[in-house]
Amino acid sequence: MLNTGKLAGKVIYITGASRGIGLEIAKNAARDGAKIVVAAKTAEPHPKLPGTIYTAAKEIEALGGQALPVVVDVRSEDAIQESVETAVKHFGGIDILINNASAISLTGTQETSMKTFDLMHQINTRGTYLVSKLCLPYLKESAIKGRNPHILNNSPPLSMRPIWFKNHVAYTMAKIGMSMCVLGMAEEFKDVGIGVNAIWPKTAIITAAMDMLGGEDISNNCRTPQIMADAAYVILTRDARNFSGNFCVDETVLREIGMTDFSPYLGKGATEENLMPDFFLDEYLVHLGLLSDDGQDSKPILKETAPPKAAGSGDPIEAVFMKLDAMIDEEIIKKTKSVFTFNVSDQKSDWYLDLKNGTGGWGKGLGDQKADAHFTLSSTNFDKMFTGKLKPTTAFMSGKLKISGNMASAMKLEKLMGKLQKRSYSTEAVEDPITQVFGKIEGILNEDLVKKTNAVYTFNVSDQKTDWFLDLKNGTGSCGQGKGTAEADAQFVINSANFGKMFAGELKPAAAFMSGKLKIKGNMGKAMKLEKLMGKLQARSYSTLGKDSTHLS
Fold this sequence. Notes:
Blueprint: E1 11-15, H1 20-30, E2 35-40, H2 53-62, E3 66-71, H3 77-91, E4 96-99, H4 114-144, E5 150-154, H5 169-188, E6 195-200, H6 208-214, H7 226-236, E7 247-249, H8 250-256, H9 282-288, H10 316-325, H11 330-336, E8 338-344, E9 349-355, E10 361-364, E11 373-377, H12 379-386, H13 392-397, E12 402-405, H14 407-422, H15 432-442, H16 447-453, E13 455-461, E14 466-472, E15 478-481, E16 490-494, H17 496-503, H18 509-514, E17 519-522, H19 524-527, H20 529-539
Helix pairs in contact: 1-2, 1-7, 3-4, 4-5, 7-8
């Protein structure tokens, strides 16, 4: 996004500006020639996180801005007051305040110490209120001079939906407190001419802190901080008197100015379909089926049923761990370095998975090693999670999974699930209708179809816990049960009912994906060929699952 120069000469006070989103916002403003007050705690290099207030100042100055690094702990009124007075003396005033500093702990009530509770509330809610209060006299002066003053908080849209509170009450209270400052101050300062707004990301954002928390490859699910910086720039250059009291989402702000291509914001290895949605956004609840499009809470149509018992095992949970045992190797242990424990709530049983010590191990009970992360979920959701039908992130955000302990270790579980699912541990038998579909497909494979498609697909039929492949890349094509011998270009996760509908022409792949009925991994270009392929296959009348046939359940 091109800068307009509208922030030239503006004095911008940014908390938490030594790295991440705060620094990117500062750098965007610096390109206009703004004067940045880099207010943060980090004066000395952090052992794990890059950047200090001084390295940030150098980056800002290199881009054409002016920088004033000040050591500030937003919990200290004296430190803030001193930094504000220093900024005014150095730059002549303050035109814009960005409350970016924040603390997070995604822990339940019992697991949240009062020290952690106090930290989040002192930095998030109290810190935002206090810095705003102490900058206010100078923001009012800016308004009198017609310099378009703004306060912008890095906080979410206000939502009182219980789902956003139930798993981390303390954090949500502290973060929502920042948003309540927006709600109240926007109205309070309306007549003064100070715009007060909030900015929040639609997806997870890759920062040094997120990289440390999520571990290797977490960027695969994130956008870069630049999208937040660009959206903030748009907000800060709007007329403060006519744009105030808004809870903005980064992508929405940029779409409003005509942007349609968001691929430049993708993190390393990320694709649009793999992006992890952020908390507090109702559109994600709609995607999960927990909220209807009209904003009403959705009720589940069917009750959850316990997972079927796997062949050869009296306990489906034990059967999963037995299959996991066969796949644990040095590479997985080296990359995971975590001990997980699982409380299967409806069975009142505990299990452990050690991917940290020796050659690994598992078993019933809590094990001998201290757990890095502990999960509580039902047997049904345990089964869904380990078969790829339910992502750990989705389970956590929807309240189906509770997590305590080290969140960095917990976040490794989703990556581990992907690796394990690729190796296919399912033992459940195949239902005949799926076999029939692939039998019909096999009968129409030819070199022309292979040449035009040039892709290998795998299908995980989630409720049956079976895998199938369709090779339309090699020779005259082939299909069958299992993963096949050729590497898949695209992998689809879908239940048997929707598989039948999709191959019968009753459900388009694109519609299935958008509604969450179909999950796609791999090359999206290849995956998009599936819908065209369906049309060709249906034209040749192969389906045994049409409208006159019995639907799969």
